[in-house]
Structure to design on (544 residues):
């Protein structure tokens, strides 16, 4: 079997929060006993290396960009000790960044100790202790993974990296040269590369940096690029109290809005497929009300919480091109989801897939009257008709499918009773509920494992497998069934229209910082015109 490698790129602080959860899910799901059946080919996302002493290392195939001061206790060399560093450390251009001395929280102390305890069974106070994504990052990284933008300090108000044009300029500097050189080194190690996955903050300077990088990938490599432009769940200026604070908040909102619009327009040119993500309903101007998920209680103000939801979605969606028994590739997904020039798709998430522990899937799908998933794309309500969608379902045992014939009773009168597996039943459900639509369903046996340090945001009404329980006994939720999907159709025209309408209200003369960084009025207008033209791809009616 070919490896079909993917190189993951992460740009920005909130995207690195998402990434930390994503890589924790991967690494904490590894089976070191050899007794569990592995569904995913981990070599797609990970690379094997050797230390100078010949010891094997296994690290994410990953490049990260963030600001000075964001790493806290994690060294810029990735966290492996000097003895564990890969052989190629000596020829990798890594600049040593001295971070201020900071005490590690109890969780990091435990996983770094010589005899680490079973952290899954311990209680930690991470809701209060997490102040950056490295505070809960479990894996250690390759020495070339981390790239710190030393010109800008994380959290600094006066020198904030908040303009997309600044990111474009940075890419043309030594930073971009080093970053692109490390991309090339990773690519040269691959045998049969699938492509690139790029997660980035689209509301600040990282949007310009990421889009410039994606343009470089398009020029240098003939591989598909799946991009997730991400909007954080909350910004520090979202709740102004004085008029001065309101004025500052409105200006920051305008800057974030312009960055997002320019990012999506750039992605429409250079990415193969892009899927905007946000746990807030609106996304434009302010994230808006948090998306709600049954039996999940999370705080959008805590990036540690909201990013875990997006990481769960990205991991579940990625099962399709990482599953050992599925020959779907990143190229196949991009080809299927981007017909008619529709490079942008929406994403959905259902976490947990909240069936009752004594209920059968056939009963759940037959009686539910609400959509079984929630949109996690900003300002986007996913249509039910004339759509193409790729759905991934994980963690629903076949024993939950339907009752045995001798107990089936009314179930036998339902057409779905003829379905012999989970995949067939979901295909029938979507066929019945989505008019003139095409749905491709992937089913994975394994649920999403919720090992520490995944936040404890699940209701006590769930059993340890993530199903709604019938008894009142308390137990920690250890895993849960999840459904996630990509969706494309005419409905996305409305989302682009909302964004274009909002950003068009902003007078360019007020965008002083963009102008100072080199963005000219004519270029800005041309970008907005191209965004409006991109919307036209979604307005021609068609039948699948």
């Amino acid at each position: 079997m070919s490896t079909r490698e993917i190189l993951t790129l992460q740009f920005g602080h909130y995207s690195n929060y998402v990434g930390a959860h994503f890589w924790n899910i991967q690494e904490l799901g590894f089976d070191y006993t050899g007794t569990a059946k592995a569904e995913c080919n981990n070599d797609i996302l990970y690379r094997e290396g050797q230390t100078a002493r010949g010891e094997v290392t296994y690290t994410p195939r990953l490049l990260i960009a963030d600001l000075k001061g964001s790493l806290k206790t994690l060294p810029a060399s990735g966290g492996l000790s000097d003895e564990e560093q890969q052989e190629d450390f000596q020829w990798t251009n890594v600049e040593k960044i001295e971070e201020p001395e900071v005490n590690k929280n109890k969780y990091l102390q435990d996983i770094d100790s010589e005899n680490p305890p079973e952290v899954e069974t311990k209680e930690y106070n991470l809701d209060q202790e997490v102040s950056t994504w490295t505070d809960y990052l479990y894996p250690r990284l390759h020495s070339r993974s981390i790239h710190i933008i030393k010109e800008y300090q994380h959290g600094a108000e006066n020198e904030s990296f908040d303009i997309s044009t600044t990111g474009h300029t940075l890419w043309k500097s030594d930073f971009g040269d080093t970053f692109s050189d490390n991309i090339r080194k990773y690519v040269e190690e691959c045998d049969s590369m699938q492509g690139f996955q790029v997660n980035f903050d689209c509301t600040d300077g990282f949007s310009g940096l990421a889009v410039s990088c994606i343009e470089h990938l398009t020029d240098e490599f003939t591989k598909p690029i799946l991009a997730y432009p991400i909007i954080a769940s909350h910004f520090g200026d979202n709740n102004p109290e004085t008029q001065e604070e309101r004025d500052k908040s409105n200006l920051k909102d305008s800057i974030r809005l312009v960055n997002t619009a320019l990012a999506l327009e750039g992605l429409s040119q250079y990415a193969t497929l892009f899927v905007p993500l946000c746990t807030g309903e609106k996304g434009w101007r302010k994230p808006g009300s948090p998306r709600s998920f049954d039996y999940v209680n999370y705080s959008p103000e805590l990036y540690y919480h909201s990013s875990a939801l997006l990481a769960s979605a990205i991991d579940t969606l990625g099962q399709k091109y990482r599953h050992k028994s599925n020959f779907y590739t990143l190229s196949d997904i991009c080809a299927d989801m981007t017909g008619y020039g529709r490079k942008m798709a929406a994403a959905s998430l259902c976490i947990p897939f909240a069936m009752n522990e004594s209920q059968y899937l056939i009963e759940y799908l037959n009686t539910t009257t609400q959509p079984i998933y929630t949109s996690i794309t900003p300002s986007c309500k996913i249509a039910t008709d004339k759509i193409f969608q790729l759905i991934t379902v994980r963690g629903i045992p076949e024993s939950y499918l339907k009752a045995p014939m001798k107990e089936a009773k009314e179930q036998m009168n339902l057409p779905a009773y003829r379905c012999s597996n989970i995949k067939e039943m979901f295909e029938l459900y979507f066929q019945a509920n989505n008019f003139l639509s095409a749905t491709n369903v992937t089913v994975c046996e394994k649920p999403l494992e919720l090992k520490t340090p995944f936040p404890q945001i699940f209701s006590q009404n769930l059993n340890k497998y993530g199903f709604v329980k019938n008894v009142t006994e308390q137990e920690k939720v250890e895993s849960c069934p999840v459904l996630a999907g990509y969706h494309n159709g005419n409905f996305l025209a409305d989302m682009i229209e909302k964004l274009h309408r909002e950003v068009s209200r902003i007078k360019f003369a007020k965008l002083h910082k963009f102008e100072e960084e080199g963005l000219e009025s004519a270029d800005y207008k041309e970008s907005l015109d191209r965004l409006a033209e991109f919307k036209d791809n979604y307005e021609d009616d068609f039948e699948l």
In short: The longest strand covers residues 146-153. Residues 446 and 501 are 43 Å apart (CA to CA).
